[in-house]
Amino acid sequence: MARFPIEEIFSLCILVVFLLFETCHAHLCLISPTQRGSLAGINKEGNDNCFQIKGPCGKLPQSKDGVIVRPGQTLSVTFQKNLDHFLSSSPGNFTVAFGRATTFQILTTVPDKGEKSLTLYTALVKIPLVKGSYAIQVIYNTNNPKAPAQFFQCADIMVENL
User: Exposed, middle or buried, 47 (CB in 10 Å: 0-12/13-18/19+)?
Assistant: First the structure.
């Protein structure tokens, strides 16, 4: 019978925990307007295209393409809880904001009521009376100490008179 040193067993346990964490993080997808990067595979729980934990817009750079909207227009923002991290003792929420760079103004908040993974949400927001290149930002605030605190997605938009 083979014997394994305790250091090897410990290292193997750490590796297994890391791999489990890597496959179990929450995700947020921004469907409309379309998020930066790809939407490929969004109907699969835990999609890597929807895993952005660095604010304000994840790790993806601003895109040159974006939806054109008018100042003051009501915009329908559709996003998906790609992987659920609801905690009934401390429910989280989703915020929809408007801005650029690191300055965002919250337009609305949608409560997380424990809906399952892959649930779609729609929020109606009013575009501020400005012109230029901006982003719509959606944040999943998990309020769950066993998950990352926030997940980010941004969609680039151009605000101009049509």
Answer: buried
Domains annotated for the chain, with CATH where assigned, are: 26-159 (2.70.50.50)
Give the residue-averaged pLDDT of 111-138: 97
**141 and 26 Cβ atoms separated by less than 8 Å:** no
Torsion of the alpha carbons at 160, 74, 36 and 87, rounded to the nearest 10: 150
pTM: 0.83
Per-residue confidence (pLDDT) for residue 30, from 0 to 100: 98
Beta bridge partners of 108: 96
